Description:
26% helix; 9 helices; single chain; 7-stranded mixed β-sheet
Amino acid sequence: MTILRKAMLGIVGLVVGLFVITVAVLYLAPTFGGTITDARRMRVEASPRYKNGRFENAVPEAKRQAGEAWDMAKRQFSGNEMRYPPRPIPVLPMSTQGFERSPPPGLRAIWFGHASVYLELDGLRLFVDPMLSSYATPIAGIGPRRFHPPPLDLEALPRIDVVLISHDHYDHLDMRTVKHLASKGTHFVLPLGVGAHLDRWGVPAAQVSELDWWQSHSFGGVTFTSTPVRHYSGRALRDGNATLWSSWVMAGQAHRVFFSGDTGAGDHFQTIGDRHGPFDLSLIKIGAYGPSQTWIDIHMTPEAAVLAHMALRGKRLLPVHWGTFNLAFHAWDEPIERAVAAAKGLGAEIVTPRVGEVVTAGQPFISEAWWK
């Protein structure tokens, strides 16, 4: 056997080995989540939103054009936007003092960065899309890393009564955070099918409730209703749209909160507002949009977010899904600049808390352009 032939066989063997290892990681690493089987599959397939082996949006998103993926890949390395903050983002560290007692009546919200918001709603402690890990990827050290630490370490959190998850993407459903909170007894309210991931992570079935759109679950005097959005799901190579995506209505005895999750614009906000509004607080995503219509259809612009807030009949808008990860082709602070300008133009109340800053319903909040 010649040296060249041996070298070629070695290269082929290396490629095959890397392929086998990659496939093994994708199918064996728990962070990629679980698969839908048995009784859960029956519920999934019975959903009006499940067609042709996958979930679909009520209003289809634009189809990706030829060459679009390649254009985006080139822009990822050639764009000149300031996608990272030029200096550290201000974080107000939270104190654990007072967390031992039950939260008082009323509504408080604390932004943890990205789409993660801690809430105290009429005596219940809630967390929407808690993502406290450093990387929004299945493998730590690879991919988007946080711009800032959370205002309170995961291990220092008080017991959270209920966690709401909007969908199963890595920047919204974090295995490390989920497993820690589950060990403390937290109950998880999820879109249909997402419980398969929690099953694989060892979360007891008694701590999980899965809902289709317009279905509700009550816990501790608060009713949680899954509501429509325009997005998609998936954590691995072959599970695209295997699980549902949702926005959430949280209705307590005295206050109501809306959380958009990830979504494109649409008339679903008007429908939600008509059925469940008005809302004391709306948590609506403003970042990670564009440049193509394909992208905007599932990640609306800041201006569309403000219009959504008004359609929902929201009293106060707390914008989320910006300022924590580099996930799109725009400057890191462009979403908040555009959202504030749009809210001012339409006369909508918008608050811009620092990470860790408390927003209390019924009390004035002095917003500052801290990102400047």
